[in-house]
Amino acid sequence: MRKRLLKYPFYLMIIMANCHAIFAQNNKIDSLKKVLLISSEDSNRVNALNEFSRLLWQKTKYDTAILCATQAMELAEKIGFKKGIATALTNTGIVLYRQGNYPDALAKHERALALFLEAGDKTGQATSHNNIGIVYKYQGNYPAALKEYFEALKLREQTGDKKGQAIAHNNIGNIFDFQGNYADALKELSAALLLFEEVKDKKNSASTHNNLGIVYKEMGNYPLAIQHNLAALGIFKETGDKRGYSGVLDNIGIIYSDQGDLLNALKQFETGLQLKEEVGDKAGIAISYINIGNMYVKLNRSKEALGILEKALSLSREIGSLNSMMDSYSALVLADSALGDHQGALENYKLYIASRDSLVNEENTKKTVQQQMQYEFDKKEAENKAQQEKKDEVTKIIIYSISGGLLLVILLALFVYRGYRQKQKANVIITKQKEEVEMQKQLVEEKQKEILDSIYYARRIQRSLLPGEKHISKMLNNKNA
User: What mean pLDDT, rounded, does the chain reach?
Assistant: First the structure.
């Protein structure tokens, strides 16, 4: 054991320290620590490292999460544990896209998907499709994101994973919301919320409440928007999810802004920014900069707005978020106009139109509809195939039943025929036996007749030789005289 500990002193020390500080008393963490301390270089150690990585990135401890995932991948590659490699790549990819490094995140998730395909792991494949979809969403490639989400949904339905189905519905709903398709967005998000509540997943229920709040806000239904936002806020606060909590604050701030309560709106945005900076959420930070910049313009603080919006645009370009770039250009148009820089406003407006058109255009809308129709078609095909398989199964049962019945009839007929043949043979034997008995009886009768005839013949001879009774009596009388 001492040799194992010496072999991995650095990362074990960091992992144990971080886990002790973050999780305090937790049975699962304690069991994972034991695995790391006593296991050899095997799949158990890989799984423990990957699980630590997942728990750490959930707590936004990204550096340590990457360290665990790297150690897990190196060991998994050494022992040829493909699923372990894929899981480590997945953890790394999630951290990368949370940090705004979309190209590298996409590469990790695509490599993980290839390994899950090799292993025939549908659950892993669905997870990879979902993660790839998230990266495409942040890059503003909505048709590609929808394709991945629908692929994930099909796999989740095949495996009966209700939580996974809910995640897919939630993500699909988000894309429809971004495209202004609010009816389908509400449909997908409502389906997701029902499933999350069914499986008692509080954290994801909160995210879906938050997304529903966004849709209702954009539809102008502020009472329902606030209702869903407050529900999300309570759950995120209970679970200690700073990233989720900050997102809800953004949405509440936008509602305050729409209602003219600019100071309260600014307060929500600034609080949200602090939380995002704590967890290193670059995509979220860019959104907060944009929201705060818009408030500064409305509050006649346009010079301050220009500075923070430039930061938003720079960060959006750094992480490759086309959606945030578009919103940054839009906000800069207002800031430039307020400052009297009409040339700057015009240039930013052109850039805004260009980025908007690349996000929402006829081709992308067509692709989105195609993705939705393809999913519905594939789903219908799967249902028809399942129904046909059921019909084929019933037909097989009927055929087997009829065949079995005919076989029983044939066996019964053979049994009866066999009995009949045996009876025939028995009758022949009995007939022969009767004939033999008759012959024996006839022979006995003939022998008996012959014997009787012999006796009668001897008796006649005997009578003919012996004197008669009268003669004997006469002789006796003469002698006495």
Answer: 83
